[in-house]
Amino acid sequence: MSIYSDLGVPEIINACGTVTRLSGGMMAPEVAEAMRQASLACVDMVQLQAAASRTIREATGAEAGIVTSGASAAVLLGTAAILAGLDPARMNALPDVPDGKREFLMVRSQRNMYDKALVVAGARLIEVGIPDRYSGPGVRDAAPWELEAAITKNTAGIYYLAGAQSKPSLRDIATVAREHRLPILVDAAGQLPPTANLHRFLDEGADLVAFSGGKAIGGPQSSGILAGRMDLISSALLQMLDLDIYEDAWSPPAEFGPLRQMRGLPHHGIGRSCKVGKEEIAGLCTALKRFTSTDEATRRATWLARLQRIAELAGGEGLSIEGKAIPILNVKTPDLDTAMALARKLAAGTPAIHCGLGRRDEGIITVNPVALTDAHAEEIGRRLAGR
Ligand SMILES: *Cc1c(COP(=O)(O)O)cnc(C)c1O
User: Fold this and answer.
1) Nearest Cα to 210, choosing from 338, 301, 77?
2) 71 lines ligand 1 (CB under 6 A)
3) In this structure, are residues 240 and 173 in contact, taking their beta carbons and an 8 Å threshold?
């Protein structure tokens, strides 16, 4: 018996990867156990976040870090930190920014569905550049000088979406940002693996970086990481906390030392809806340690073996495995209609198998191994054999 049979909800096979719609991935037993243990006692949340900061610091090289309720929450809190700094009046005002210093520059080709998180906190997005290389007639994207030209007295920071396609390079943008003393907030939610990316964006000049906890790290589905400069991380933390306290009863730990300079405490703020529980913090810290101590090649070999087993059982034409950090099995069919018919058939079976449809126009459905077990691989292989 499982909780899902108690609730009357069928379990599915998630071959899409750790997507939110399909409940992310599965946690390792030690991560679930950390969450269970965390639920059995109470702690001071600031002390728990200080412990998380030490863990995140170890994993990323950042000055500080906090656990958030997801990468999107980390971007929202990071924006709030950049807009308000350590000023409680500015924190209380968000999402208003009375002096108008609320503009975040971003490269137009990096616009995405998740950038709403900045707007919610009070930012105004200023798009820069023409993404010619996407539209076909040209080859260029935004240049660093174009970002520089867009800086005004209302510019608060620069937002950067990390990805294989992202241009200009973060290093080039950081050169401009440093000159104008503008902080850079990087959304790197899905940029793991490789493990080295935990350090990379900070090394390249980011002031804050956001990661998902529920993707490849293998933490709780509603967890994320915000890592970076200690003053900004401290501001972000404060804007998520319960602050129904007297100021003389509050003494922040050294991990969030900059909070000791504050002239007063803000009220519950813009970040309160990003609240994270002790169970998520404990789970994320355990998952992060596990992620950084797992050998990269071993992790990839496990995923690859799962896809190879599926291909072996499925047999027939049109199966190929593509490289990159996460290997993906492509199942090629003649066209879009046959791909969709196969996807519908797999989803209609018991258990339902959900495949990736990102390449359906080419007649391809995809299998991502990250949210699968070995038993799932057997089932997918058998069901594909009858395709
Ligand atoms: C997945 C993703 C997010 C959201 O992450 P959550 O942890 O689910 O909040 C944000 N930005 C990008 C680029 C993502 O891929």
Assistant:
1) 77
2) yes
3) no
pLDDT digits over 26-62, tens only?
999 999 999 999 999 999 999 999 999 999 999 999 9
Residue 230 maps to a domain: yes
Cβ(20) to ligand 1 under 6 A? yes
Ligand 1 mutation pick, 21, 66, 110, 114, max ligand atoms within 8 A of CB: 114
Instruction: Please name the amino acid found at residue 224.
Output: G
**Which of 272, 292, 312 is a domain's end point?**
292
Q: Kindly indicate the confidence band of residue 324, based on its pLDDT and cuts at 50, 70 and 90.
A: confident
17 CB within 6 A, ligand 1: no
Confidence check: pLDDT of 19 > 70? yes
> Is the four-CA dihedral 289, 291, 292, 294 of positive or negative sign?
positive
Q: Look up the pTM and report it.
A: 0.97
Which residue segment(s) compose the domain that 327 sits in? 3-22+295-385
Neighbours of 201 (CB within 10 A): 27
